[in-house]
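Progress narrative, work stream C.
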Amino acid sequence: MRGLIAIMLLAGLGCGMAAAEPIPLPHPRPPIWVEPRSFAEAVAGLEFDATDVSSAPTPCDGRLAAMAEIEPMPWLIGPGACGGRDMVRLDAVWLADKTRIELKPQPVLRCAMAESLTAWLRDEAAPRTAVLGANLHSIDTYDDYECRPRNRVPGAKLSEHGHGNAVDVRAFTLDDGRVIGLTDMTVAKDFREALRDSACRRFTTVLGPGADAHHNGHIHLDIVERSRGYRICEWDVQEPPKVPLPRPRPALADAR
């Protein structure tokens, strides 16, 4: 009897073992980053045409090299709509008397924008520093080529900085060591007004104090083309607030 029970138990265990099935492994997760199918999709944009890329200097490069130190970069690529053709790094500007005006840091710009900036510094900014009693020595820049939306606001339209069409200028350094902030309210007002007026004639966009809070500490310059030649000039030449004088003290009574 005991032997029969043992055989039945073994048979039952054998059936249970035969019925067990392996547990299937979960499917692998799809990768979070989908690899782009091509270089154009990844970086250059679908409109990128490699046949247009050339190391040959352009006519703009030739004109600019006669009055500035540049490092040509024929095509600066993306991502997306960023970048552009005929890009240069503008290291310094040569005045007519061969004085070298260094830019720090050196901005990366489209050649056309670099040419406009160079002409403005040579023809307008440098001569006007004479009213300050010293000569222009160097330029303190703030922002140049950067692939970002306007004012770095997510979802905003692409900034002209993303095309190399814009530069931000913070200050001029004179050869006597003085640093002249373009938005410094203590700098001579007529000097800043003359700079503003010349900049607004040269560039299609000029933004500074009064434009918005993003431009209180520097001047934005660009050469974007708009319909009907529309231009924007928003740079308030501000003065220090006037501190009211204390009221005069009342006269003391004649002591006797």
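Work stream C, second folded protein:
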Amino acid sequence: MREPPHEEFLGLAFSRLTLADAVGTILDRPAAGYAYVVTPNAPHVVTVHREPEVLLPIYRGAWLSLCDSQVVRRLAQLRGLSLPLVTGSDLVAALLEQQNTPAPRGGRKRILVFGPDEAIEAALQRRYPRADIAVLGGPKGLARSAPLRADAARACLAREWDILLLCVGCPAQELIADQLRQQGCRRGVALCVGASIDFIVGRSVRAPRIFSTLGIEWAFRLALEPRRLWRRYLIEAPQILRIFFRQTSARL
């Protein structure tokens, strides 16, 4: 299936679809043939450029690549590009809300969530009683272990799903999405959407809308979890500026 139009930026391709368009495109996609969706933010872009031989082909091989970062979006504006903001959390919430209607667009989809502990399944079913949702827990250490990622892909392939939500963080979720392709997955769409389910069920707190509007949602998350996130947001993510200026200079 031909992919929707994308813009080239920072070495990646970003979709021009809005949130509503992305939801409709995913739900209307024919069941036959496997595809996956990535949601790059600033730390993801930096991670991809740190391991371009491995990760760049995976990101560029995505059927949809949706901009999940006000920082990336505003840097794109400096280049004259307009990228709609479609966060993984908003995308998943909109998909689940659609599936919770009496007559969902594209028909009722079987949704498998991979990553969170399986106790979260009951919370999702209470919130979306009409949706067909199952949860498959994932082990720790997926980012560092290729055998674990291969096992994870096999476990997902053993289940029936139309939409697979991979919620194990970058780059593990993208590597598992690619593992599914390598292992011969022939149907369905996998979404690499990080902590989206934790936000939806209230295990993690989303920043107030004003933080997102100003492009500083990262500061809110850093204040909540400084020990876990300080390196990501203070050391790694700012490297996106080096990538941006290097590529801008190369264009001059």
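The mean pLDDT is 91. No further action is required on this item.
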